[in-house]
Structures are given as C-alpha cells and as structure tokens.
Amino acid sequence: MSLHGGNLNAAAVLAGIPRSELLDFSANINPLGFPDWLRPLISSSVEALLHYPDPECTELLAAMSATLDVPTEMLVVGNGASELLAALPRVLACRSLLLPVPSYIEYRLAAEQSGVMVEPFVLTAETDFALDTQRLKQALKPGQMVIIGQPNNPTGTLCSREDLLAVITSCPDNVFVIDESFIDFCDVDSYSLRQQSLDNLIVVQSLTKAWGIPGLRLGFVIAPPAVAKQLKAALPVWSVNVLAQVVGTRAFQDNEFLPATRHYVDQQRDLLFKRLAALPGLTPLAGSANFLLVRVDPQRIAAAALIKALLKKGIMVRRCDNFDGLGDNYVRIAVRNEDENRRLCDALESVLQPVSKGISRTRKTPALMFQGTGSNAGKSILTAAMCRILQQDGVRVAPFKAQNMSLNSCVTFQGGEMGRAQVLQAQAARLDPDVRMNPVLLKPSSRTGSQVIVCGKVLETMDFKDYAARRAAIFSDVRDCYDSLAAEHQVMVLEGAGSPAEINLKSRDIVNMNMARYAEARVLLVGDIDRGGVFASFVGTMELLNEWERGLVEGFVINRFRGDATLLGDALERTSLHSGKPFLGVVPYLPQLGLPEEDSVDFKDGLLETTRPVGDVLDIALVDLPHISNFTDFDALREAQDAHVRKVTRVVDLGTPDVVILPGSKNVIHDLGWLKDSGFAGAVQHLAASGTTEVVGICGGYQLLGQKISDPHGIESSGLECQGLGLLDMNTILAPQKTTTSCQARHLGSGEVLRGYEIHHGLSTGNNVDPLVERNDGMPLGCSAQGRDWIWGTYLHGVFDADGFRNWFLDRVRMRKGWVALGSSRAVYDLEPALDRLASHVREHLDMERIYRILKL
Fold first, then answer.
1. Which among 809, 826, 841, 852 has a CA at the least distance from the CA of 384?
2. Is 797 in the active site?
3. Which of the following is catalytic: 489, 644, 761, 797?
4. From the candidates 699, 743, 747, 760, which is the catalytic residue?
5. What's 797's DSSP letter?
6. Is the separation of the CB atoms in 568 and 586 below 8 Å?
7. What is the rounded distance in angstroms from the CA atom of residue 803 to the CA atom of residue 68?
8. Beta-sheet pairing, 117-122 with 96-101
C-alpha cells in the first residue's frame, strides 16, 4: 500500500474486487467533484497539447494575482503542492525543521531528502492536537524552519490567525511555511495568511483538493519575491502542463464553486461526525476540513482489523500509523456525499455490531433506471420488458416514473389517474396499476399549460413557470410515493423522461438524474439507432452531464437496431473510448410488437401506420385531433385482421370510410374549432347523413358529436359556448370536478360486458337519444342518435378492448356492407403473450448477467 490515501489499484488487489467498485474515503477530495465547466473546458483545450506549456504560466499567474490580490512576483505555481514542498527545504537552506506532529508525511520526507534534520514538536491527543503557539515559540531554535498545516492534516484542526501571526512576527529569524492546502474547506477570511506579506512567511496551497483535480495536479506558493524567484528556478521548466494552466486560470475566475463547496462540506461533515460518534469504539475528532480523524478503541477492534473489514466491503479509509505522533489506533475518513457517508456508516455499524442507538441501517431497494438520449428512445418499452424479465425470475419488481407528460392516461381501480405506459409496466410486473408508480402526470392543454395530476388527482392547470415554482414541493410527494412503493418490492425499475442532458432544465429535474440519485439507481442510457445519430447522442449526452450524473450511468443500450450487430463493433468501441462507458446490449427492432405506445409521438409521426391488408378489410378512419388523448383506445381495433385503422390528418384523405372515429381530446373547445376550420366537421356530418359510414365518438369525441359544448368555468377556454357537430341531440357542460373512475358497464345493443375507465370533465345530457352504454350502477355512459344507430358515442375508454363487443361491432359494420360476419374467429386481444415475447427478445440481447450484478441480486 502507498504512504498516502487514494491508491485504488493496490486496494482493489487486496480487496479482490474491481477498482470501479471501491468507495474511497482515504483521499480527501471535494465530495462535489470538480466544477461542471472543467470537462468541456479540457475538451475544448485538447488541441493545445500540440504545443509546449507556457513556462511563465502568464495567464494563470495573472488570474491568481487578480483574485488573491498578490503581486505576480510573489507567486510560484507547481505540479501540485507536494512538488513545491519538496523544493522549499533546498531553496531555504535551513539546517533543521521544527515539525508539529502529527502532520502530513511529505513535510518530513521533503526535509530528509534535502539533508535537513527534523525535530518533532509533538501535539497531544489530550488537547485534541491543538497547536500551542507559545510552546512552539519556546521550542524554536535560531534559523530553524517550521511547517504548519492550516488546517492540520490528519487532524483537521485550525490555529487562530492572530496566534500564528504573533509567533511569526516575534521570530523573524525563523522561516514559517504555512500549508493551506485544505483552507478552501474552511472560513478562509478568518484563518488564511495568504494576504499577509512578511519576510519570513511562505504560504503553500493546493488546488488539488478543493477543485477536485488530484489527477491533474496544481499548487502554488506565496512567498517573498526573492524566495519566489529562487523557488521557480529550482523547479522543472515545464512543471505545470497546458491543461492544468487552463483549468487553474478558470478556477480563479469562478466565484461560486468554493462557497458552495464549503456549505456542502460543513453540512456533511457535521452529519458524519454525529453518526461516527454514535458508533461504539469510535471517537471522531472535531475538525474543520473535508475529513475527520477518528480514534479506534483497541478494546473493541484494532484499527488495522477495521480497515481490513471495511476493505472487504469495498470501502477504503486511511490508515494513520505512518503519521508521526499518531499510534496505530487512528483512521482518517474523508467527507464524501450524503449517500456515500451513509454507506460508510452502515458498513461500520455492521463491523462494530453496535448496540442500538437509533442509527438506521436501512438500505435502499436495488433500482435500475432507463434514461434516453432523447424522447421516444424506447425507455418505456424496455422498462416494461425488464419488469417482466425480473418477474419471470421470481423477483418482486415494480415500475416507477416520477413525472410523465402524456395525454394517454388510465384510471386505477381506486379511481386515480396515471400514465398509460406505467399501467402497461405494472401489467408486465403482474401488478395492479397504482398511482404511486407515476406520482406526477402532466396532460398538456395548450402550448404552455398542462393539467397537473399529483398522486392520481388533479391539482390544477398550470403554465410551465407556475409548475416550475412548485416543483420542489411536488418532488417531496414523488419521493414519498417512491419510498412507499419501494418498501413493498425487491427491485424497482425506473423510467426517465426525454433526455437527462437538457441543460436548461436538468437543475430542476425530478424525473431523470435527481430521481436516480434519490433512488440510488444505476442508469442505463438508451438510444434509438433507427432515428440516426445514436453514437453522437450517447457521447453528447455524457459530455453534458455533471460528474455525479456521469457516475450514475452504468452503460449504454442501443434500441431498435436493424441489421447485423457485428458490424457495430468499431462504433461501440470508439463510443466507449469517448465516454468511458460500456455497451450492455443492442436490442434489434421487434416488428408488430402488439403493445400500447407510451404517447402520441409515434402516432403523430405515422410510425404506427400499417399497410392495408388485401381482402374484405374494413376501413376505419381515426381523425387526428390536435389534442388527441388516449389513442390506445384503438389498439385492439388495430390488431383485428379484418380492420385497417388509419390516421387522417387532412380532410382530403378522409374519403368514405366504413367507420370514422373522433377520439378523446384534452381540449375539446379548441379541437371543435379545428374540425370546423379544417373542413372535417362538414365532411363527418356528410358521412353521418349518408348512413353508410358508422360515426363514433369516444370521450372528447363523444362530446364533439353533440349540439352544444359549454365551458362556464373556463376549464378549456375563457368561458365559451360552442355549437358541436349536431349529430347527437346532446349538450355538454364542462365541470370543474374531473371524473376519474374505473368501471364495468354493459353495451345495451349487444348485451356485451365492457370494462374500462372514465376520464372527463364533461357532464352530457340529451333527450332525443337512445341509451347505449350503461354503467353497472345504472349511470349512462353513452348514447346513439335516435333512429340512426350508426351514430354513437361513449365516455368509456377501452370500449373496444372487450373481445365480445369488438367482434359484434366489426361484424355489424361488415353486415351493413353485405359481408359475412366473422364472429369469435378473430384473435383474442391479450397483451400477455406480447409482453412475454418482448421479455424474451430483450433478455436475449441485454447483458442480463451484468444487470443482475449491478442490482446485487
């Protein structure tokens, strides 16, 4: 093992696990990682590697001087603080070093390598290793050099600036080197000496720790001009590489990152201190840096045994027996992020077997999340597939999508409204739909506004700005739903929305990376190769993610591939080279999937269109309303062999179909105006009058068939009252209270039993109509025109899913045309075989062995 922390390779060998699975608490680096600007800055600066670095570090020194308010002639930059510390004893030519210990081991090594005698100045545990400057002053010898960590490493203690200045100014014959490598985690204004200009004061600082760049290396010294000149001459000519200079220059221009770091570290250090202090056998020392020194009670467990036990669990902490002044019963623990700190404490608790002190040892339910390089990449279907695969393997699994924007919804048995995609995923997991699976459903009602449904109930209609302002509170409901659902299952499979790399939105995201972080989910990034540009999308997405977001990504999945997957070999390798992430599968395109689509994207794009079969096939025209909703009401019709459902967007394409359907609408007032302006209204009225075309309206489409639609409460307009198509003698009033009911009903004309759900604001009443669909409690759900039974409508979504009614309906249309009825010879509409087929297909083409390892199953 190394003398220092952070030697992941050596630790991985000792632990017998991959380096990537180690959690490193031995190196004290910013738990936030490096700033978001660093990765794109380095990427844009790569071409500078063709040239030698600026030996004078001109731009970097200028930025440092401006920020620190220190003349450039007092500044020297190097390849990390360690390089500068190693050179200082040679430059200063002191005979001996008075070294307060415990302290950073490199202080002693640097002195010894320069032939400088080291005299320890022992700090005691009884005083919490505080530096007594008066006692230090008494111990000093003429011409002696002193190195003081401010704060000290490994104790994290600080000395007051006033006490340090008092001893420095009173001992002008001694040289004081103050190492402020961890000062940026503290109150800089109260403790730093870098603004002091004294002939015997040298301040050393590392940018490695606070800026999260230990692999890049950058440090600087503030010294009297003569010393700075000598020190620079003692360093290699190109000590600071091109990228380090670019990053350092940008760092000194950033006024936000370090304050945010200090706030976060203060918060996490306090929490970690309390958790460690509650564990038997551990006594943490209160510190001011991004680490804690912890005394291990040897009566409970030896520190070496504790380190070994943690390493077996994939956790590294810093052993401290090579720190002068410390025995072998101390460990140093870095402050990392909240989830990692919790994992450490859980591991420590399991090793130490503590008496219950109120410390929760709960572990998040294992979770896998599908996110996409963009919308409609196949996240929903892959989530359903994974739910069915895990369910087939005996795992209790549930789907979850924090926020869904869709006009395709469904009602649960409890009367809550949720996204249709999560209903399908629930079926894949063989579960009843539960609004906890989709806590937030946004149903767009205009270009900038959506109806917001939280936990299955309508909250209100909001524009984007209003929703954004309330999203934080809504996210609390989302987390509660997730925790409740996850507690009942062994694995959670989450779905994201759109792309996690929307840089204008992701800081307020509640459905992609922020949700993944909360669930501690590993992310698979899905790209649709059928749309083109999939490899650029993978790399581009990764480039726009923050470091903590990148850390959640386990790998890539290519979806909807057509062709020979072996031809992708070079592309996969190069994409992994650019991104650092592997591919976990290439899923071929699966034709005629036979499952409902998530939203109207494919429907609007015409991707669901099929070629009309030959023979006696009914022509069913589905009018593509601008605000179409619940278009999956017609999936069962699309599966019928003797029916061809085609989307109609232009009136010239309507023709004389056997059936014309007006589907559900999220804004019937607007869509009614569109029907009239586009000419569809007159065309549908003409077809209805002919008696040769069956005219059907579902939910919003049902309302459109009536005489009048009133909106007195401004649900979809400013209080308009509009004339409908006049095909049903029925009036509709849009009411504030939304009806959401899962129900069973009966079709009076055929006697067939129907099952489905209602989602509507309208209350419709009529006189000269014939009741047609009746709920089990006697409530009418639909009617037909009196004397014209080929014109009808219903509020019941899913009316065509019932095999008996669908067969009756299609046969009635066939017989009107003089064709033979097919009866029950048609295929049964059943999603189960399609889900099993999907699961088998995805299982074959995903690395399921690795996914099981990811889930630790």
1. 841
2. yes
3. 797
4. 699
5. B
6. yes
7. 77
8. parallel
Average pLDDT, integer, range 580-586: 94
- pLDDT given at position 786: 94
Instruction: Round to whole Å and give the CA distance between 424 and 838.
Output: 12
Amino acid at 769: V
Q: List the structure tokens of 304.
A: 């070496």
Average pLDDT over residues 733-748: 90
Strands (E), 412-519: 417-419, 440-444, 449-454, 457-463, 491-495
4 an active-site residue?
no
Is residue 73 within 8 Å of residue 228, measured between CB atoms?
Answer: yes
**CB 717, CB 743: distance < 8 Å:** no
In terms of DSSP H, where are the helices of 435-554? 464-486, 513-519, 534-543, 547-552
- Count of C-beta atoms within a 10 Å radius of residue 813: 20
Q: Is the peptide bond before 102 cis (omega within 30 degrees of 0)?
A: yes
pLDDT category of residue 568 using cuts at 50, 70 and 90: confident
CA–CA separation, 347 and 342 (whole Å):
9
Q: pLDDT-derived band of residue 666, with 50, 70 and 90 as boundaries?
A: confident
DSSP letter string, 282-324: EEEEP-SSSEEEEEE-TTT--HHHHHHHHHHTTEE-EE-TTST
Residue pair 803/829 in contact by the 8 Å Cβ criterion: yes
pLDDT in tens, 683-714: 999 999 999 999 999 999 999 999 999 999 88
Give the model confidence (pLDDT) of 224-266 as tens digits. 999 999 999 999 999 999 999 999 999 999 999 999 999 999 9
Comparing 6-10, 327-331, 479-483, 520-524, the range with the smallest average pLDDT is 6-10
Best CA proximity match to 311, nearest among 281, 348, 336, 361:
348
**Dist. CA 537–CA 541, nearest whole Å:** 6
Strands 330-334, 291-296: parallel, antiparallel or unpaired by DSSP?
Answer: antiparallel
Angle between helices 105-113 and 81-92 (to 10 degrees): 40
State CA 802 to chain mean position distance: 39
HEC per residue, 426-448: HHHCCCCCCHHHCCEEEEECCCC
564 burial class (0-12, 13-18, 19+ CB within 10 angstroms)?
A: exposed
pLDDT at 603 > cutoff 80? no
pTM: 0.76
